[in-house]
Amino acid sequence: MTQIPENIILFGDDHWFHLLPLTFTRPIGELRTGILTIREKWAYELHANISYITQDYLSEKYPLRIEKNNLLINSSFLPDQILLSYISQLKQNQAIFWKEELIAANVPGEEILELGINKSAWDNLSGTDISSIQHISPLRVTRPQHLFQHNGIEITKDFRRITNRKSSQTFSETNIVFGKHPAFLEEGGVIEACTINTEDGPVYIGKHAQIMEGSHLRGPLAICDHAVVKMGAKLYSSTTIGPYCKAGGEINNAILLANSNKGHDGYLGNSVIGEWCNLGADTNASNLKNDYSEVRLWSYVEKKFVQTGLTFCGLIMGDHSKTAINTMLNTGTSIGIACNLYGSGFPRNYIPSFSKGGASGFQKTALSESLTMAERMMARRQIHLDDLEADILKHIYLNHDSITP
Fold it and tell me: Per the CB 3.0–4.6 Å rule, which of 35, 145, 358, 380 could disulfide with 158?
């Protein structure tokens, strides 16, 4: 077995555009599916430093690090044992492909930028296309809905990664814990008078997370570090409540990336909510059409609604967006970043970034208003909106149309 380079560089290729609005403010590797982000999964498996080739306006926050020896990995692929086996055998200037798309390459530092931006440079690689090999079908994230589609499987994989050779804290006798899979309570986690059903998958409760009394949890389920689950919440399978999030009401097969709130009653299913979002009390997001037909989602690449192949698909919401109380959202709604929704009725299914309004119409929010709203919410988590974060939001505001292809 060859020595795997200790410097990993994740790149997103054109898939970054297809994952908007979630990727307006981050590389693909910072998206969460399961318990961990994609970056954290690769870091765990390869025990390496990780940096990014990403959009220029994100590169200061997510800088590229180049060493003498580097492993370039397509961040749309999720690690599994088969991929890791092939990657571990790569020698310098060797690569593996999936239907002619680069998965990973072992490359020296002087060639790394060429490979990241110029596909013709791949001709210099000695590669193996593994797509024709039987029984190989890696999980990928190339569309927003893939995050919640893979979430149950990834929770189970991440559960094994995180809890390997560790012991759970003891669940108190006020809880009812049953099922054939394990439940794990990290140090500082608090849970009392709740039901935990692990019949279909494990339940993970992170460090200093708080699950208030009367909550019902069904695995596979992840409640990450410092998250808060409100009283009487109903969290169904394949759901992830990200770090520092607040969750209440009914949530099914949904992901809150981090620092977002759905703290009250209302339904959220088959959805992905970005960071620094807030769903007002009794916000309901439909995930199934009345006629049970296939759901369409807005594509920032094709500039139109495209079929998802799914019957169940709810809400995709970019960072810093908010809904007022009693907001109603149609099946397959895509909301950009820094939006503010309010008023009665169902707003349209695609809401551009920096919009405010509702079913009666939208107008563009002033940049200063968007920055103030972001600053106020972040301050509630004792985090300052620094110049770097503000500059990213400013760049998206001023160059929104040119960011998309």
Answer: 35
